[in-house]
Design goal:
single chain; Rossmann fold; globular; alpha/beta; 37% helix; 6-stranded parallel sheet
């Protein structure tokens, strides 16, 4: 008879997670880096007891906000290229629903994180308990049902033995290159505390390895024919290049066959910025070089990208009738977008197989020469855009330039949402594959500071520089205190442009007047707008902080931040109006067809003309 061990459901769950390992570069590591936990009545007596009893078997991190701790977990998984991950546990009600935004972010970006929200009683005897959502027509519905559409796998554990089939399924999703994404196991608080005789073998150590799916031979042959036929091919490198760890193979393939490379937000850093075939960012926030090549290419080779609207210029840059697309992706869902022909498989294996079949085939010399000239011209544009700006209020680009030059190697920049990701995508010079971490799949304000903690956990020996606007800072800043408490130093550069400047620029570009975005246009009187001392606020959370009054002061302040013993914050006021006009392409944002404003009407007419090009 198989040996059994009697444990509570929560103890069994924790023990199972501790038994999962991953092999990375020949080294065995725990699959889960640790658990972020904020306790409440829905998890403290169950999972909280299990974690405390288990001692040091898995690190536990206390945070200040459920959404931001989940952002940190997501950022860690992204930085580890999905090979390691974290779990997050909360109580029922607001603690759980605070994590739904982070779950959506992880879902969009195909990133693994395990959500363990507490839930109401499975036996329903005390209903309604504190924080319980009551559906008048369905008593099985709880707040945790909000996780269903933003989870790749969702389950509610209503009996302790249900862990036996559910946990292996959860881990399989978290570690699968195709299904990868957030997993939610909803844990009723009474069931967490219930005991069951589990088979001891259930807790045997298991090692997970990266799966590398090979391409179908017929699809591979068709892909090789398409590439060999192309005279003007362009590679678009997406996040899948990073997750497959195919950066070296991409560099070899591009160099051998003379194919220029453009990078999506998730794919940036696939090649170092100074690689001779790196044409820079692609799409709405793209470089003039990459977008010009995309406009003239006869074949787009899209590797590991979702081909979303910012990448494709809403289908007008990539997706044109006269340009073929070859999509290389491990995920079926992403393969056929924009009418692409398909090659399903792991990015690294597919590049190796195509390279072997192509032999010495190369793009035309004229195409390579064109790419080199465009790249040189664009680098000059970047130099100009990021040059020292002596204006009273510098541009975001000027600030970015100083930060990039100060942290040119061995550092990672972190950002998300607003205007900064666009400037970073165009202008940041990523020295290596870990230099750039921007969340732009869900474009989630508030990700930045918490994300910086996750990046630092993954790369403890790198400088982690968070660039964040005042709007995002105000949304989620509490994890500054967490970063200090758990010894994860980050450097935060706050660009204070007095409002939501990115959307203000979009609003005015569509014919509107500044309205409810910048602080000065958001209140009945300008003097009602709050005047926030961000440096003093950060200091109150424990950070070393200072405010600088000019670009010239910024560099020395950054050096002080680099030398600080713990998290440091540098604040600088910036101009909300300018952004880098060079590069970019059309983005589909509908304009009111009827308006009292002549400016809106004029923009609407131009919008209709752009729509006709589809």
């Amino acid at each position: 008879m198989a040996a059994k061990i009697r444990l509570t459901m929560a103890q069994a769950l924790h023990r199972y997670l501790c038994a999962q390992y991953v092999e990375i570069d020949g080294e065995l590591q725990c699959l889960f880096k640790g658990i972020f936990a904020i306790f409440g009545h829905g998890n403290v007596a169950g999972l909280g007891e299990a974690m405390q009893s288990a001692g040091d078997s898995m690190p536990v991190y206390r945070a200040h906000n459920e959404q931001s701790m989940a952002h940190a977990a997501v950022a860690y998984a992204k930085s580890m290229r999905r090979r390691r991950m974290m779990a997050c546990t909360t109580s029922v009600g607001p603690g759980a629903t605070n994590m739904v935004t982070a779950a959506a972010l992880a879902h969009v970006n195909r990133l693994p994180v395990l959500f363990l929200p507490g839930d109401t009683f499975a036996n329903r005897l005390p209903d309604p308990v504190l924080q319980q959502i009551e559906d008048f027509g369905d008593p099985t519905v709880t707040a945790n049902d909000c996780f269903r559409p933003v989870s790749r796998y969702w389950d509610r554990i209503t009996r302790p033995e249900q862990l036996l089939p559910s946990l292996p399924q959860a881990i399989a999703v978290l570690t699968d290159p195709v299904e990868c994404g957030p997993v939610t196991l909803s844990l009723p608080q009474d069931v967490q505390a219930e005991a069951y005789d589990y088979p001891e073998s259930f807790f045997d150590a298991r090692t997970h390895r990266m799966l590398r799916t090979g391409a179908d031979p017929d699809e591979l042959e068709s892909a090789v024919v398409a590439i060999r036929k192309a005279r003007r091919p362009l590679i678009v490198a997406g996040g899948g290049v990073h997750y497959s760890n195919a950066m070296a193979e991409l560099a070899t393939f591009a160099s051998k066959h003379g194919i220029p490379v453009a990078e999506t937000q998730a794919g940036k850093g696939s090649l170092p910025w100074d690689h001779p075939l790196n044409s820079g960012a692609i799409g709405v926030t793209g470089s003039r070089a990459a977008n010009e090549l995309a406009n003239n290419a006869d074949l787009i080779i899209a590797i590991g990208t979702r081909l979303q609207d910012f990448t494709t210029g809403s289908g007008l840059l990539i997706g044109k009738a006269d340009t073929a697309i070859l999509s290389i992706n491990v995920a079926r869902h992403d393969l056929g977008k924009r009418g692409a022909s398909t090659l399903r498989g792991d990015a690294r294996r597919c590049l190796q197989d195509i390279d072997s079949a192509l032999g010495k085939a190369k793009a035309t010399t004229a195409w390579v020469d064109k790419a080199e000239k465009l790249r040189a011209d664009w680098n000059s544009t970047v130099d100009s855009a990021t040059a020292i700006d002596d204006s009273a209020l510098p541009s975001d680009a000027a600030v970015l330039g100083v930060v990039n030059r100060t942290f040119d190697t061995g550092a990672t920049v972190v950002c998300a949402a607003g205007g900064l990701p666009g400037e970073l995508h165009k202008l940041w010079r990523a020295a290596d594959a870990d230099s750039y971490h921007v969340e732009y799949g869900y474009s989630c304000m508030g990700y930045e500071i918490a994300g910086g903690i996750g990046v630092k956990m993954a790369h403890p020996h790198r400088d982690v520089v968070v660039m964040v606007g005042d709007g995002s800072y105000l949304m989620l800043n509490s994890e500054i205190a967490t970063s200090i408490a758990i010894g994860q130093k980050i450097i935060i550069v706050v660009l204070d442009n007095r409002g939501f400047a990115c959307i203000n620029r979009l609003q005015t570009s569509l014919g509107g007047r500044g309205y409810n975005n910048l602080l000065q246009s958001s209140y009945s009187r300008p003097d009602h707008a709050p005047d926030i001392d961000f440096a003093q606020h950060a200091a109150s959370l424990g950070a070393q902080s200072e405010k600088v009054s000019s670009i010239n002061e910024l560099e020395t302040a950054l050096q002080r931040a680099r030398n600080a013993p713990h998290t440091a914050v540098v604040v600088i006021e910036t101009d909300p109006l300018p952004c880098t006009e060079a590069g970019g392409t059309w983005w589909d944002v509908p304009v009111a067809q009827i308006s009292d404003s002549a400016d809106v009407t004029a923009v609407a007419a131009d919008y209709q003309e752009q729509q006709k090009k589809r």
